[in-house]
Design brief:
Elements: E1 23-28, H1 35-38, E2 48-49, E3 52-53, H2 59-64, E4 86-92, E5 98-103, E6 116-118, H3 120-125, E7 155-161, H4 164-174, E8 181-186, E9 196-203, E10 222-224, E11 226-227, E12 230-231, H5 240-257, E13 263-272, E14 275-276, E15 284-290, E16 295-300, H6 305-316, E17 325-330, H7 344-353, E18 360-363, H8 366-372, E19 375-376, E20 378-388, E21 394-404, H9 412-422, E22 431-439, H10 454-472, H11 476-483, H12 503-512, H13 514-517, H14 519-529, E23 533-545, E24 551-559, E25 565-569, H15 578-590, E26 596-598, H16 619-628, H17 645-673, E27 694-696, E28 699-702, E29 705-709, H18 710-719, E30 723-732, E31 738-743, E32 747-751, E33 755-760, H19 766-769, E34 778-780, E35 784-786, E36 800-812, E37 818-827, H20 835-854, E38 888-892, H21 913-925, H22 936-943
Parallel strand pairs: 1-17, 4-18, 16-17, 21-22, 25-26, 37-38
Antiparallel strand pairs: 2-3, 4-7, 5-8, 6-7, 9-10, 9-22, 11-12, 13-20, 14-19, 15-16, 15-18, 20-21, 23-36, 24-25, 24-30, 27-28, 28-29, 30-33, 31-32, 31-35, 33-34, 36-37
Helix pairs in contact: 9-10, 10-11, 10-21, 11-12, 15-17, 17-18, 20-21
Length: 944
């Protein structure tokens, strides 16, 4: 990538430390009455039975109500905060074609006037502007007087009340009141500039091993701006990667246009709607500005605490509010991605600054969450697939994937290209040209939501392939098998995916399943027995990337002389059970789960790393940073997103456990086995290798040597002064960073981490103990570090997890209602850590996908959620009766070996069911819908 290449980040956007001159402290909520509710308790006795967890680590807290969320916390619950809680709410513009002229709060009367009214002009006067990321948050918090709102539902004012009763009464009085916001003349819509466009073109080489003629990985993706509403793609030519890429794209288009009778060219347009993620915890925050100490205290519901703290520092550093320290406390939250880099935390900061010394809580109710919470992007998609009629092999595919990002940029740019790079789904494509276009509009802001663009594009591909099979007279699974993406082949970016691709195994299992094998006979029988109903079975299979190309994590593991383990981790529980799985991973390697766990850890004094948080950069820039600062890392820690726990966060956990095993427990066990006359029991087995060591159920054994209790081995490790504590940092750029360290006993050692700190046992010699000067640890300076080449930023992805779903439906020809009779899914997730957690993710994901396919819908513009009138009384979510809760089955492929890594599956489990249902409806009624959701009124119209 050259210096002009736009940032390819999915999740990262900070360009450097915005906190210059402001100390930042980030921690899990502690102290006061909230401590027991928000700090993870240690696992109780009996939590593990037979080496497997009996419950989630947080199960008791969940079922007893002891585990609460950020939304449940008030100022009085936080140690050191005053208890005079104030409250705030926003007034939003519901029209985007008129100038904002001010407010009319006369309806409130004198008694309910706000204690503080904040307008755009107040922010300007006080030096408060959107942090310098106009490519992310936009350029306005509140609409200035005389300007047209950028988007429907854009806030125009912030109202702060010092007491709850007046706040609640005022909020009720102003809700749905169209006279509160005063508008002036009618204008044109005023959305920001469109967000960006990328193009991913690939033409294969002469063989599997040969270089591609063109690919984004080898050459580059193509980036461009806009001419009007259309991308201004560069001219084709031979000079430069963009020109050569456009020439390749034109050659693909020409080949499709010139296709003869030997090929089927299927062109279709699809639409996927905007939806609300409907996370049960709406956006909220509580902020106290202590002017006396210069401390800005934050309590936020966020997936990225570090980012919120940095953004807050950037917000206040040029303002009239002197801030010397930001103290952010993070509690439990959940958001399906929608609490990742949202504007709401910054609005909470504004409320706190104007609180007059009181903590101010800004918390959406459900109407407000529909109005300004992040949405899943709607997509319009134009696709073309060229297939050889004789062999059924795909020759080429093109797609133009346009997402509507609404009135703030947010993640729209990256959502568009992640969707485009996933569009190939499970198929190998010799030639492909995928355009990703992110448009701005007056719609409500869309951002990071579960599926991240891939649900939309892969659903379209699966519907397209299913229709192609019908037109070719082929079995739909057989056609998929003829074109399935196999291990060693390259994706549409020109990269070879990690590990073994097992899509073919899943397809073969699906083809043999009774739902598929007997579908025609069952259709005839069902419809004969149920007049007025049509029966159908649909199939779809996808594989979802997981990761961002810039995943960073920290983990710390210690063992005391009694063999008790303590795990501290940056992982923050978002609902999928990450705390449970990380603890279980330790047990798999060390034979005992940690007695003490602490998650959501954000202070790591033993890790004095420095970062500009610029993981997507040029080779020269990265080389320069490393040459100037040997402790530099591209990223300190990642936000807690849906699919990074099992693989990426788990890599840190597993690495810490292995280092503790190899450098403390292994030499300590050898020391015990070597005691006695003539070298003890070990002497005759002196060739025993470390990989022969076995740890299980608190026993250390292996290679025929006498079993040792873990307590004895731990005590020996402490006596010998071995590294009984390990803290490490990891970084992945579609490949793991490695570094070399000088370690006692092994010399220069290469490990799959980029930073290491050790804590030695009490028996360590004085010179070794003297090294523990960094937060009580020995920070081991790396001898060399090997960050993956920045060229891998062009990869798009290399890690995939696949899933297929068979869906059986009945369609009522009178009402148009679709009843899901049963569904069967097949998942490949590597090695399961906690099967029950995988099952939970599958069940929840399927329900979410069913809602997207058949029920959930938000109008984009007028009449949509920006008008503030939407709630669950209008927005239909699937219920138990809609998801065939008692008739769903799942098969999970066993791992190829016990050493298979786990895969990130939290997103893929919701996708395949969407096109499977669309294909099932087509099988039932003989009509293919190209727009989602497929609702009863649409079916009635077709069948009329």
């Amino acid at each position: 990538m050259d210096a002009s290449t736009p940032n390819l980040s999915r999740r990262g956007f900070l360009r450097g430390s915005a906190a210059a001159g402001i100390a930042i402290k980030v921690s899990l909520l502690r102290g006061g009455t909230a401590e027991a509710r928000l700090v993870e308790a240690a696992p109780g006795p009996g939590w593990i039975a037979g080496g497997k967890p009996r419950t989630r680590l947080d199960a008791v807290a969940k079922v007893t109500g002891a585990k609460t969320f950020t939304r449940d916390v008030r100022a009085r619950d936080i140690a050191g905060w005053p208890d005079n809680q104030a409250h705030a709410f926003l007034i939003a513009a519901t029209k985007a074609d008129r100038r904002f002229e001010g407010l009319d709060l006369s309806e409130l009367g004198e008694a309910l006037q706000p204690d503080r009214l904040v307008l755009h002009e107040d922010l300007v006067a006080d030096g408060l502007a959107v942090p310098p990321h106009p490519d992310f948050f936009g350029d306005r918090f509140l609409v200035p007087k005389g300007e047209t709102p950028r988007l429907l539902g854009q806030p125009v004012a912030l109202l702060i009340y010092h007491d709850y009763p007046r706040f609640a009464a005022a909020k009720r009085g102003l809700r749905f009141n169209e006279d509160v916001v005063r508008y002036g003349e009618t204008t044109a819509y005023a959305p920001p500039a469109h967000y960006g466009a990328t193009r991913w073109v690939r033409i294969e080489g002469e063989s599997l091993e040969a270089d591609d003629r063109f690919s984004p990985f080898r050459d580059a993706p193509i980036f461009t701006g806009f001419k009007g509403d259309a991308p201004a793609w560069p001219a084709a030519g031979t000079e430069g990667p963009a020109a050569r890429g456009m020439a390749a794209a034109e050659s693909i288009a020409a080949e499709i246009a010139a296709a003869g009778d030997d090929a089927l060219v299927l062109k279709r347009s699809y639409f996927s709607q905007s939806i609300d993620a409907s996370a049960m915890e709406a956006d909220n925050g509580n902020v106290w500005y202590d002017a006396k100490s210069g401390t800005l205290h934050l309590m936020m519901a966020t997936q990225g605490p570090y980012e919120v703290a940095e953004q807050a520092a950037a917000l206040v550093k040029a303002s009239r509010f002197p801030v010397s320290q930001i103290d952010l406390k993070a509690g439990y939250t959940v958001g399906y991605g929608t609490k990742d880099h949202h504007l709401h935390p910054l609005l909470c900061v504004l409320a706190g600054l104007y609180g007059g010394g009181r903590p101010v809580r800004l918390a959406n109710d459900r109407f407000e969450q529909f109005q300004n919470g992040l949405k899943r992007h709607s997509f319009t998609m134009d696709t073309a697939l060229m297939i050889d009629r004789a062999s059924g092999r795909f020759r080429a595919m093109t797609g133009r994937y346009v997402c509507d990002g609404g009135g703030r940029p947010n993640f729209s740019m990256s959502v568009s290209f992640v969707g485009a790079t996933a569009a190939q789904s499970i198929y190998y494509l010799p030639k492909s040209d995928f355009q990703a276009v992110a448009l701005a509009s007056r719609a409500v802001e869309a951002g990071s939501t579960r599926g991240y663009g891939t649900l939309q594009t892969m659903s379209a591909t699966e519907m397209l392939v299913d229709e192609a099979a019908e037109l070719l007279g082929r079995d739909a699974i057989e056609l998929r098998l003829a074109n399935v993406f196999r291990s060693g082949q390259r994706n549409s970016q020109g990269a070879v995916p990690a590990g073994a691709l097992r899509n073919d195994e899943i397809l073969e299992k699906a083809a043999a399943h009774p739902l598929w094998r007997e579908r025609q006979a069952k259709k005839a029988a069902y419809e004969a027995a149920n007049p007025g109903k049509r029966y159908g079975v649909g199939f779809a299979q996808v594989h979802k990337d997981y990761g961002t190309g810039a995943e960073a994590a920290l983990a710390s593991l210690e063992i005391d002389p009694q063999g008790r383990l303590t795990l501290r981790h940056v992982a923050h529980e978002m609902g999928p059970g990450v705390t449970t799985s990380q603890a279980v991973m330790v047990g798999e390697i060390l034979g005992r789960v940690p007695e003490t766990t602490e998650f959501g850890v954000v202070r790591w004094p033993q890790m004095p790393l420095e970062t500009t948080d610029q993981p997507y950069t040029t080779p020269q820039a990265e080389e320069d940073r490393l040459s100037k600062n040997s402790r530099w890392t591209p990223r300190f820690t990642s936000p807690m997103s849906a699919t990074n726990s099992a693989y990426y966060l788990g890599h840190a956990t597993r690495s810490a456990a292995r280092i503790l095993r190899d450098h403390a427990l292994w030499p300590a066990a050898r020391s015990l086995w070597g005691r006695g006359f003539g070298g003890g029991a070990l002497a005759s087995y002196h060739t025993m290798r470390s990989e022969e060591l076995r740890l299980a159920n608190g026993i250390v054994s292996g290679a025929g040597l006498p079993p040792l209790r873990l307590e004895a081995v731990a005590a020996e490790a402490h006596r010998l002064g071995l590294p009984v504590g390990v803290t490490l940092h990891t970084f992945n750029r579609w490949q793991w960073t490695e570094a070399e360290f000088e370690l006692q006993g092994t010399g220069r050692t290469r490990l799959p981490i980029d930073a290491l700190a050790l804590r030695y046992g009490a028996g360590a010699p004085a010179e070794r103990r003297a090294l523990m000067t960094t937060g009580g640890w020995h920070f081991v300076e790396r001898s060399a570090v090997f960050y993956p080449p920045t060229q891998r930023n062009n990869v798009g992805t290399t890690y995939y997890a696949p899933m297929a779903t068979l869906a059986e439906v009945a369609v009522d020809t009178g009402s148009g209602a679709v009843t899901l009779l049963s569904h069967h899914s097949i998942l490949e997730c590597g090695r399961q850590i906690v099967p029950e957690l995988v099952s939970g993710q599958i069940q929840g994901g399927l329900a979410m996908g069913i809602g997207h396919a058949l029920k959930e819908f938000l109008p984009l513009y007028e009449g949509g959620p920006g008008d503030g009138t939407w709630n669950w009384n209008r927005y239909e979510l699937p219920r138990a009766k809609d998801v065939a809760v008692w008739n769903q089955t799942v098969e999970i492929l066993p791992p190829l070996s016990e050493t298979d890594p786990p895969k990130g599956i939290a997103e893929v489990v919701m996708i395949a069911v969407v096109p499977a249902l669309a294909n099932a409806v087509a099988h039932a009624i003989g009509h293919r819908f190209h727009d989602l959701p497929i609702r009863p009124e649409h079916i009635r119209e077709v069948l009329a």
